[in-house]
Amino acid sequence: MPRATDNDLPPRPAAPRSFATAQVQAGFDSGVAENTAVPAIHQSNGFEFRSLSEARDLFALRKDGNIYSRAANPTVLVFERRVAELEGGIGAAGVASGQAAVAVALLALAKQGEHIVAARQLYGGTVDLLQDTFADWGIEVSFVDQDDIEAWRAAVRPTTRALFAESISNPIAQVLDLGAVAAVARAASVPLVIDNTVATPYLQRAKDFGADIVVHSATKFLGGHGTSLGGVVVDLGTFDFTVQPERWPQLTQTYPRVPDGSLVERFGQTGSPYIALVKTKYVHDLGPSLSAFNAFQLLQGLETLDLRMQRHTESALTVARFLETHPAVARVHHPGLDSSPWRAQAQTYLPHGVSSVFAFDLPATGDAEADFRLVEEFISRLQVVRLVANIGDARSLVAHPASMTHSHMSPTQLAEAHIGPTTVRLSIGLEDARDIVDDLARALDRITESAQSAQSADAARQPEAVAR
User: Fold this and answer.
1) What are the φ/ψ torsions at residue 393 (nearest 5 degrees)?
2) Class of residue 279 by CB neighbours under 10 A (exposed 0-12, middle 13-18, buried 19+)
3) Do the beta carbons of residue 185 and residue 212 sit within 8 Å?
4) CB 273: neighbour CB atoms within 10 A?
5) CB 426, CB 397: distance < 8 Å
6) What is the pLDDT of residue 456?
7) Which residues of the chain have pLDDT under 50?
8) Is-contact 203 56, C-beta < 8 A?
9) Contact by Cβ (8 Å): 392, 426
10) What radius of gyration do the chain's Cα atoms show?
């Protein structure tokens, strides 16, 4: 006689239960899906299996489903699918932060004894990760000027496993010649990984210009409200790991966590072997998990991404144009200005608007302490723009890269990234652009007044010196 399956068995009658059991279990059926109009917060560490056989298949990756929220969660899955579609990708992995996204994206490509080529012009925390922590793990990283395409080409080695850059650099807002760097990556037969945090998929779909993998700090514009940390890695589906399978054994050879097969064999036709590796090894083993609650808040932010980016970029260009005319500003680094060396690349790669994260320089004296005091006094006068170590917020934010976000970099590295002692980073928010301009004007006017007072005092002392 055939054995009854789970579906053939009649429902179990409710067993009498005590107060203690009822307070834990009453009123909930794990098999019932509610028809909510918005993604639900699945705030659960683990998930109930219908049978031990199902559990075995899930743990062996023979079947897709929920096991434990460290590596996968239904709310996080909605977030992953949404970002993947916006980027034109085939799969995504949500993680706890943008830093985690960069780390797991690259660790899934390069192991001990292998090599990565990265742009010099990166967020300071990313530089720390690549030059310090990756070195501890035996992964060497060569940094090149992102605008020097020959330098990219010359830095590639037989052991190189990825090229990495930001589509718009933080804080100077250099626009990467993505197509040219992608050509170098293709010639080297390695994937191009792009941090698209500042651009977002609304301003730029990196896939359209040759990127293979995209990472985001979802903490920034994707979430947009400064409330929730998160990151995401997206496989754009453009790099074929099977062309040179010996270079990618982690994907093409037998994977211990997939019985009798490789990740390419298991997921190559239905999903992303690369994202499967990111989730089942690096997120699973290292634990940088995105919480269901944060995924829910990031999904809320994503629903208004295009509207917010339009406002961010329009206001930022207004602010940049104002700053360029102010006598207390030495230079403005904004690729939407005609004076920017990256203006042409912005027109090519940013069809829907230009960065709302950019920087400007106050006049430097050459005295480190005097320069720091100048920046500190300027920031202290701001009332609308807030001193916060973040970008992509609804609020306008200011930071001093040399003493904050990029403070671990050497003087040479800072100079190569075009960051000076008086460089000020702005992230323009959703306030009225006139209020932001007026706030900056009040703070800058005091610098001009102080300079004029000093010049007058010097002029007054000159006749006295001549008389002596």
Assistant:
1) -90, 160
2) buried
3) yes
4) 25
5) yes
6) 54
7) 1-6, 466
8) no
9) no
10) 26
Say how far apart CA 395 and CA 350 lie, in whole Å.
Answer: 23
The number of angstroms, rounded, from the C-alpha of 229 to the middle of its chain's C-alpha atoms is 11
Residue 25 pLDDT:
83
Claim: this prediction has a pTM higher than 0.85: yes
Which pLDDT value is given to residue 11? 58
pLDDT at residue 443, rounded to an integer:
96
Q: Which pLDDT does position 466 carry in this prediction?
A: 47
As a whole number of angstroms, the distance between CA 369 and CA 117 comes to 35
pLDDT at 35: 85
Upstream peptide bond of 327 is cis (omega within 30 degrees of 0):
no
Is 159 in contact with 178 (CB distance < 8 Å)? no
Alpha-carbon gap, residue 197 to 217, rounded angstroms:
6
Three-state secondary structure of the chain? CCCCCHHHCCCCCCCCCCHHHHHHHCCCCCCCCCCCCCCCCCCCCECCCCCHHHHHHHHCCCCCCCCECCCCCHHHHHHHHHHHHHHCCCEEEEECCHHHHHHHHHHCCCCCCCEEEEECCCCHHHHHHHHHHHHHCCCEEEEECCCCHHHHHHHCCCCEEEEEEECECCCCCCECCHHHHHHHHHHHCCCEEEECCCCHHHHCCHHHHCCCEEEEECCCCCCCCCCCCCEEEEECCCCCCCCCHHHCHHHHCCCCCCCCCCHHHHHCCCCCHHHHHHHHHHHHHHCCECCHHHHHHHHHHHCCHHHHHHHHHHHHHHHHHHHHHCCCCCEEECCCCCCCCCHHHHHHHCCCCCCCEEEEECCCCCCHHHHHHHHHHHHHCCCCCEECCCCCCCCCEEECCCCCCCCCCCHHHHHHCCCCCCEEEEECCCCCHHHHHHHHHHHHHHHHHHHHHHHHHHHHHHHHHHHC
Could you tell me how many residues make up the chain? 468
Which of 144, 172, 139 lies closest to 399 in space, CA to CA? Answer: 172
At position 401, the amino acid (one-letter code) is P
